Amino acid sequence: MPFLSGFTPALLLITLSELGDKTFFIGMILATRHPRRWVFLGVTLALVVMTVLSVLMGRVVTVLPQRYVQGLTVALFLGFGLKLLYDGWRLALTSNLAEEQAEALETVEAAERQHSTLWSIRAVLVEAFTLTFVAEWGDRTQLATIALAAVHHPLGVILGGVVGHSLCAAIAVLSGKAVAGRISERWLTLSGGLLFILFGLLAALELKP
Q: pTM for the full model?
């Protein structure tokens, strides 16, 4: 089904890529300081808006000849995949996600130093939305979403992306610390690389002569 051709890769790529990403830790850190439900809502809204914008950008690309669009998509997925495999291979077997977490903590601390000590629901929503949206802009998951939307059913890509992002946001807000402590950065990176290469090869098989 055309719909599932967009839903499945979007769900898998985004879920695997977002676990342990900077936006994951932003949600986790904010949830330790503010009510979880408002943090989850702000983070999820930002990711939904980003997904929709990325899909729209991907559909704009379809004005180009389809063969060129498919070729660019293949190159993008294979390039991301090889880069992730290279990065994962260089990581130590025991490497964790401390660097991503430290970067997220620095981002949250910088934002909250500019805020008063009085918090409202609106302030929490705005902070969660803004920090997540900025951190996600230009991320590989955004580029992957654009590429998927260029060659797959846009509604399927949107729904797959929203489900994947929402799942990761829920994990981050509810049990981010417990999960992060059990995630191997090396194996997460290698798995993401293999998944990108898999979808790149599948896209290559669809190239028209």
A: 0.81
